[in-house]
Specification:
Layout (H helix, E strand, L loop, with lengths): L1 H7 L20 H8 L2 H14 L5 E2 L26 E3 L10 E4 L16 E5 L52 E3 L20 E4 L10 E5 L5 E7 L6 E7 L14 E8 L3 E9 L22 E7 L7 E4 L4 E2 L17 E9 L4 E11 L1
Parallel strand pairs: 1-2, 3-4
Antiparallel strand pairs: 2-4, 5-16, 6-9, 7-8, 8-16, 9-15, 10-13, 10-16, 11-12, 11-15, 12-14
Helix pairs in contact: 1-3
């Protein structure tokens, strides 16, 4: 080729700053002009000639490839073409580690990066080449989540502090509460001292209150609480006790329920009932004047009583269901054994009964 002769005889080549003319001595001028129309051939001739003459061309305005955006796997943008010779790529900028590209190309540099960064690109002037780049990126993020909504109130914490004494519930450590045989207050509670006293409540229709109970032998071991009633047509009757008092709950969470003997002269239906603090008038939340806000609502378990059976009956706290009337604050659907106020044995209206209650105790 003509270019090959030019490289071989570099002293015969003349290069002008103006790209319009390139004369190769010993050749037809028309041939030379026609060759000059080919820009790629022209660049090759210049490159070869200057290298043969020991020339060194440095171009500083070539631009290195721009790395892909951080956090992605996209390829970087291609770098600009570097003039023949030794080229120095431009500099990018961005977040993350730098990108360095090396290659043996005519200045076109491609890069793949997972972050943006600064970089340089160099070329040695051959026709093909590869480029590599590395980059790192870091990021931080902060966030917060909303907390869960608060639960309801079912214990003594619900009570009006201006009305409720605010005493914390003491734990019950002695399981046997009443066997009705004590010489010092047979009607009293003995699992905690001082304790409450058993009493009865009637609806005013039927057996009078003073005739409804007596501590005496009634078919169980020793004495029992003999409870009778007839003609109660309004709401019924019950025998109940506050473990300490109406304003002092106790903690029976160490136990799973309660056991008692209930000997009945006839088959019957008993309602076992316990109450938490919120149901008491001194708590300041219930109101017997307002329908749906009445006091003394609690948790019950309905039991069938066979005739003359003295086997202990057991009611677990988990078996209790909240009554559907009266004041019931949010969060009180389940009985709270850490806040026990009272225990009651009740019979519904129009139910006649004759029972002997004995050996009332907490069970694990």
């Amino acid at each position: 080729m003509k270019a090959e002769r030019g490289v071989e005889h570099g002293s015969r080549m003349v290069f002008y700053d103006q790209p319009a003319m390139l004369f190769i001595h010993g050749e037809d001028p028309m041939t030379t002009l026609e060759a000059c129309r080919n820009a790629e051939w022209f660049a090759a001739v210049v490159s070869c000639a200057m290298l043969a003459c020991g020339g060194n061309i440095v171009t500083t305005d070539a631009t290195g490839g721009k790395g892909g955006s951080g956090g992605s796997s996209s390829s970087g943008a291609a770098g600009s073409t570097v003039s023949v010779g030794t080229g120095v790529g431009g500099f990018g900028s961005g977040v993350g580690g730098g990108m360095v590209g090396t290659g043996t190309s005519t200045g076109t540099s491609t890069s793949t990066s997972t972050s943006t960064g600064t970089g340089t690109s160099t070329s040695t002037g051959t026709t093909t080449g590869t480029a590599t780049s590395t980059g790192t990126g870091t990021g931080t993020g902060t966030g917060s989540g909303a907390g869960g909504s608060g639960g309801g109130c079912g214990g003594f914490q619900c009570c009006d502090p201006t009305m409720w004494p605010g005493n914390a519930p003491p734990p019950i450590e002695m399981p046997v509460c009443s066997d009705f045989d004590s010489d010092s207050g047979a009607e009293g509670i003995h699992c905690i001292l001082p304790g409450g006293v058993w009493s009865v409540d009637v609806d005013g229709a039927g057996t009078a209150k003073q005739d409804s109970y007596k501590i005496e032998p009634c078919g169980t071991t020793g004495n029992g609480f003999h409870f009778v009633g007839k003609g109660h047509s309004v709401w019924g009757a019950d025998a109940a006790v506050a473990i300490v008092s109406q304003t002092q709950p106790v903690d029976v969470s160490a136990y799973t329920g309660m056991s008692f003997v209930m000997k009945s002269t006839t088959p019957n239906v008993l309602i076992f009932k316990v109450q938490n603090s919120y149901s008491q008038p001194p708590c300041g939340k219930c109101d017997d004047v307002l329908i749906g806000a009445e006091c003394y609502s609690g948790y019950i378990k309905v039991l069938s009583l066979p005739a003359n059976d003295v086997a202990p009956l057991v009611v677990r706290w988990a078996d209790l269901a909240q009554q559907s009337w009266g004041y019931r604050p949010p969060g009180s659907a389940v009985f709270d054994p850490r806040d026990l106020i009272s225990v009651a044995f009740a019979f519904d209206k129009n139910v006649d009964f004759d029972v002997c209650i004995d050996d009332v105790k907490f069970v694990r």
